[in-house]
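Long-time lurker, first post. I've been practising inverse folding by hand and with some scripts of my own, and I keep getting stuck on stretches where the structure tokens seem ambiguous. Below is the full token string for one chain I'm working on. Before anyone asks, I'm not after the true native sequence, just a reasonable design that respects the backbone. If someone could post their per-position residues I'd love to compare against what I wrote down in my notebook.
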């Protein structure tokens, strides 16, 4: 059975979670994505994952609203197959309305591969149109795994040119000083990926960053970069890492934060 687990993103002013898909077996084992997602992708069933996660995330937000406690914002991965669905935005809108969830309470994460695959099929315009409609619905967008592809920064600016604003950039764990060969090499990589240009242009005043798999030294490193570039927005930097928070089931998440 597919089910989302929820991992806290630490450092946000309010509770901020990402929904991570897992599969529970009849024997009670919990399988990680690498164990089942490749076959689901081959079978064209990634939308099953997206809608399972969206339904469960909305159910969690809706359940917590009865406790008169500020409900969390939940990040959900939006894969290429789902993004290509012709009536995706209507489907999302219906699910949010059924659960009385505000669009701003979810955040959709996209990766560079959604653009690469659509370039090959010459279908970029419909993709951008869908992202623009999602944004106009009031759903913030997040660029996931920034730094795993050399053209990541290009797609950030391409979306901005089309009026699609990225709310959050998640910097991949490979861009953490604790994982890099040395800081000089890391600075060169960040420049190549357009990170410093993003800071310099400040197109989106509400832009924030999440450090994936970060240690304390990584946070210090990126705080200094933001300060050196006069990027001083409050709460601009947060962390998502097993060192800070482990993914938890629906019930455990509910019990941990609200009971």
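-- Answer (accepted) --
I ran through it position by position. Result:
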């Amino acid at each position: 059975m597919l089910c989302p687990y929820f991992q806290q993103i630490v450092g946000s002013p309010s509770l901020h979670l990402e929904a991570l898909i897992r599969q529970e077996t009849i024997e009670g084992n919990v399988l990680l994505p690498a164990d089942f997602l490749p076959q689901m992708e081959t079978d064209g069933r990634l939308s099953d994952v997206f809608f399972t996660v969206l339904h469960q995330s909305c159910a969690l937000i809706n359940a917590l609203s009865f406790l008169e406690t500020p409900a969390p914002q939940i990040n959900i991965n939006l894969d290429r197959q789902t993004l290509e669905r012709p009536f995706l935005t209507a489907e999302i809108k219906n699910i949010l309305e059924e659960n009385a969830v505000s669009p701003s309470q979810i955040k959709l994460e996209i990766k560079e591969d959604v653009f690469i695959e659509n370039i090959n099929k010459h279908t970029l315009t419909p993709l951008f149109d869908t992202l623009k409609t999602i944004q106009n619905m009031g759903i913030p967008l997040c660029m996931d795994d920034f730094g795993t592809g050399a053209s990541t920064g290009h797609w950030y600016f391409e979306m901005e040119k089309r009026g699609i604003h990225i709310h959050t950039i998640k910097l991949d764990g490979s861009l953490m000083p604790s994982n890099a060969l040395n800081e000089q090499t890391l600075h060169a990589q960040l420049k190549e990926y357009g990170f410093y240009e993003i800071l310099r242009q400040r197109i989106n005043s509400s832009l924030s960053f999440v450090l994936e798999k970060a240690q304390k030294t990584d946070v210090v490193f990126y705080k200094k970069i933001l300060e050196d570039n006069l990027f001083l927005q409050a709460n601009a930097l947060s962390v998502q890492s097993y060192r800070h928070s482990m993914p938890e089931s629906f019930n455990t998440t509910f019990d941990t934060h609200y009971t």
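A couple of notes from the structure itself: Residues 72 and 240 are 15 Å apart (CA to CA). The chain has one domain: 2-258. Happy to go over any region you disagree with.
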